[in-house]
Structures are given as C-alpha cells and as structure tokens.
Fold this protein.
Amino acid sequence: MGFLDKIKNGLARTKRSMTVSMNNMFASFTGENEEFFDELEETMILADAGADTAVESVEELRRVVKARGLRGGEEVKSAFAEILADRLNVGERELHLTTKPSVILMVGVNGVGKTTTIGKLAARFMAEGKSVLLAAGDTFRAAAIEQLEIWAERAGADIVKHTQGADPAAVVFDSIAAAKARGADVVICDTAGKIIWRNRAFGEATEAIGSVMGVGLDTISTLSLDALSEDAQSDAELCDRLYRVDAFGFKTDEKNYWFLVFNDRTEYEKLTEMVESERSVIAYILIDNLDELSRHVQDFGSEVNDIAGILRDFAAELDAVLREYERNKYLLITNRAGLNRCIASSFSILDRVREVRIGDMGLPVTISMGISDVGATLRDREAGAREALGMALARGGDQVVYKNDDGLRFYGGTTRPVQKRSSVAAKVRSCELVAHISRASSVLIMGHSGADQDCFGAAVGIARTALAAQKKVGIVYDPNSSLANALYERLLNESSDMKQAFVTPEQALIMASPTSVTVVVDTHRASMTAMPKLLEFSERVVVIDHHRKSADFIENAEIFFHEPYASSASEMVAEIMQYMNVNRMPAVEAEALMAGIYLDTKNFMIRTSLHTFEASSYLRKAGANTVNVKKLFQVDMQTYMQKTDMVQNAKVYRKIVAIACWEDKAGSQFRIASAQAADEMLNIEGVQASFTLFPDSTGAVIISGRSFGQVNVQLITEKLGGGGHQTMAGAQIKNSTPKEALDMLKKAIDEYIEESNILGTHS
C-alpha cells in the first residue's frame, strides 16, 4: 500500500468515525439533555466546521426543537440537516461569464478542496462546449502542479505551469496572456493555501538585516505598536525606506492581532520633495532709501552699482532669475530650495546690503523684500509677494516679509525706519477723514486697552476735530485700566464740551449705527483695542497708527492711515488737524497731544523728525505749556518707590539687555512704575534695551520693552504675541507666572540676537 493510499484510508476512517459519532448522538436524543447540544457543537468544531458556524447552527437547532416540540432523534437530525443546508444556500449559484476570457480565482486555506473543485468546474465548462485553461498558481505545495495536471488531462483542458517556487502572479499573468492568444473562454487559477506574511518586495527591502521572522516590530522599524490605529494611517521607516502603514486589528479572548500593510512610499516621497523644492517662489525687492539719501549725497552711482552687484550675486547663489523692472525695484523668481537657504541664513542679504555706506557720513542702504509661495498659480504667488512687500514697507522697511500657508513671517527690521512721509499724503488723509466725518451722524473714537498718553492725546485730537464739525462724539475710555488718568481729570475740569465726550465701552456699542464712523488710534490690531466688539458693529472704520504693521491688522478699514516713521499717533493727529484748520482748542487738549509726543519720543530724545517739531510747534501755538506737560508725568511717592525697587532688582542679560522682574502681584496700577523703570534702566552703561515684567490682577504677566534704537524691542515682543515699535513695545503673557514669562522673554531675546547678530559672531 502506497503513501497516498494510507492517507486516503485514514481519512475514510475519520469520516466513518465522525458519522458514527453524529448518528449515535441523534439516536440518544431525549429532548431534555442539554449535554447533547454542547457535544454536537464540539463535534462540529472538531470537524473544522468553524466556531461561528457551529455555535450559530446549534443555537438555531435549540430554537427549532423547542418551537416544534421535537422528541425523536431522526426528527432532530432532519431539522439539523435543513439548518445546515440553509446556511450553505447563500448567494447566487449561477456563474455569469460575460467576458472572454473569464477569469476565476480559487482561494482558500489548505484542504478545503480548491484543486478538486477546479477539476469539476473544468469538466463542466468543457461539457458545455467552452474552452478552458488552468493556471497552476499553487507553486508552494508539493505535488500541487502535478495534481492540477491530472485534472486538466481528465477534463481535456489546457494548463499553464511554471516550476515549483515560481512567482504565482507571473503564472496567472502568463495564463491570461495564453488564454487571449488561444481564444480560450475560461481561465481557472489555482492558488496556494498558505498565509503569506510578507511578499517578495518586502523581503528584498529587509534583506539587509536578514530574516525578520520573530523579530519585534519596534526593533527593526520606527513604527510603534502603541501608535497603531484602525482609523488612521501611520508612517514608518524600515531599512532606509519610508512606508505608509495601514493597520487592521482584530481581537480574541486572549490576544489582539494586527494585520499590517506596508505601502512603500520612498520614491513617492523623493519625487514629492523634488517637486516641492522646485516649486516657484516670487519675491519683490525694493531699495528703501536711495531717494531719501539723495537729499544728502549728490553722487552715489558707484554705490548703486555695488547694491545691484550684491543682488545679482544673491540671485546667482539661489539659481534665481532677477530683473529690475523699475528704478531700484526688482523681481526675483526662485524656488523653495532657494527660499529654504534664505530662511536658514535669516535672509543675510539684508546685512550684506546694509554694509553699503553712502557719503561722508556713511549712511546705510537698506532693502525691503516681499516673498510668497502661497497659491496654486504664479499669479497667486505674485499677488502674495506684492502684499508681503507692502507689509514690509508698512513696518518701516529693512526687512523681509514671507507669506506662507501659516500667515506672515518677519525677518530683519533691525534698523531705524527711514523717514518717507510727505505733506501731500497727510493732506490727502485729512481730506478723506473730513469727508467721513461730515457724512457721519456720530464719531466713535477708540484706542488700545490700557490707554497711555499717546493713545489718549490722539483720541482727544480726533474728538476735537469731530466737535469742530458739530458731530456727536464718543471716546471709549476706561479709567480703571488707563495710564492717562491725570490728563483725563484735567479735561473733565477744563474742557466743558469734551467732558461729555467720554463713554464706557458698553455705551459705545449702543451709540454705534450704520451712519456712524469709528476711528481707531494708536493701534491697528483689533484684539488690542479697548472694545474689539465695537468693530463688528461699525460699518465704517478709520485707523490712525504709527506702530509697525502686524499680520492681524484691521482689514476692513476705509482709511488706513499708517505711518511707522512717525514718532507717535499724537504727532499724526496733530498734523491732520493742521490741514483741517482746527486752530481753536482748549490748552489742555493741546497739552494732551503734546504729552503723547513727549511719551513716545522720551522728551524729544528719540524718533524725532521735522514732522515731530512741526506738530509740536502747532500745539504750542494752540496753547500747550511744556511745563504743564512735564508735570503730567510726575508720579506719587508710592509709584516712585515701586520704580526704584524694580530698578534695584534688575539684572543684565546677554551683556546689553537689562531685565527687571517683579514677582509679587502688583495690579494694573503698577503699569506706570513698570514703564518708568524700563526707561530708567536705559541709563545703565552698556545697556541697549530694557524689559520689565510684573503680574497683573488677571493672572497675566505684563512686559514693557524700551531701547534707544540699536535693539528693536518690537521684534522681540512680537515673538511673545505683542507689538509696538522699535524703541517702545510690550506684550501680555496670559495664564503665566513671572518666572515662566521671564524664560519666554529670554528665549525671544536669544532668538533676536542670533537673527540680528547684534553682538557679532563671538557673542
């Protein structure tokens, strides 16, 4: 007796034993023995019927026996046969072969009868007059190819085969190709019954580390089992290749199983990276101050050539295209790879241009750049670059504004803004403001929260302008948070018509109407205003501000009068009032405007220009007394002692920055002492910038920054969510302790020093 005969006899004995066992169980059925159903379920599972099939079928039998009141074993046996027959009667039995060739793929684990079924199907199709070709795709099981050959011979069908161990997919491919060539009607493909845990490509990808069978996933890959989720894809690196991993999980009573599909994305990611690196980037470059410098230097043709040479070298380094489309104006087209190099160097081109000096005084030349890679088209990126350049100029020039998908990023801006104001522009803005006020039923005026003297003075100046036009006026003012209460008290006592102009934020909301106009002074950020909600109720908005422009500026303003070169908002308003012929006002109002100029220029020490002194002269003629203005900045003994205590606690950081941190709760009344302490610390030798920190009653930490101009404190506070201008800026760190805010401030200072290289390479 041969080996196969022994196996056949063994299986026959197993079949007989199973049949006898089942018959004996049904014969002994009494209708009352629950062990019968348990034994029947176990027998089915042992017969490889499947756990789910066994449990569900036996449970259905229980229901039928009870419903029909069955008692005899043969009745129960017949009922069980019906149940199994119904479970097998699933789906349509007919095969609809509508293509030529029609392809049938047989799948299933070892022993379910795939090869035998193929033989039966082949014989049936041949009997129907169809031509059949068999594909020997089971190249794994021993003798599987030979067995299929026997079935092909019996049915009279053709067969395509490869050697054992060949690629099953190649066998199927060749079989279909042969069927098409021979005009066969049906292709039936045999497959291996094994579960393939990895394919050949995966094996080749991991051959560098040898067999990975039985090796922990986290030891060969960056993929963490803890990160697996059926709802999301995971990225993993394996043997220097990148994969996107789809995970399919299932659980048993004892274990959790994961079926992982590794999709090789290495080449795709390389291609994506290459495409992204070559994505076009548009930039506009403007030489800021040559026109202004020409007033002081007669001939600087060689310097202009030097700048042009620097820009050409810059373009060559980026493999970019550079074209001068107008005098001192350039268009640059590069790619993201070039942009990334610029970002890595913090746009060192600013420093290279700034090294060019003109005239005997060695005046520096600066450039502004707007750059954008946002948008699907070149037109979109060009528009973004123009917008970014406008922002750079609005912030005072000498900087790069980069527009990306996340918003705006700023680089440079370390030098003092170059004066570019003109009387013509001020006259135009004055006429526009007159037109808006004349059409308005009322004028609402609002500054930033915690109004200082500049904010207060500018608001008073606009209010006087509106009152001169006989308009109803409302100045949004909160004495509890203001730093200008001394001015406020004087106005209440000395200006009768202005006394009625002050309203609370809530009253301003009631006054707002479609015919009113809201004028925002000394800020251009909605979030910084005393009543942001008022802007939502205002259809017409005017902005007058001198702080460097931020990304979150008020976009719906009909007039955006923005002068980063001005010393103060009070200076801008005083200039407007001159052109509007507002020549009569109480002296206290003129002193309020003068106080604003005093504050932001540190008593005319910094940020002054011809416009500053012209505005001051106008206010002096209107009755402003400089002695009275000076008295407005006097403080009581408590505030003076607070200022002194802060200065005593100051420490010098990075050789040039003085920082004083007050850790005890101080409240809003501490603002004056904090600001004055920041001013006072600038008198320390070697100190170029100063910062004070203190916690207010709301849990926020208030930061004030001051400098003489060598250090741009605005760029530092912007990193903390604040703003201001080059010599005076501030920020609020909410939900923070003074120590945490101090650490954040030091980090911002470190970043600024690194970006600006203000200490040199050996700092």
The longest helix spans residues 3-27. The chain has a mean pLDDT of 85.
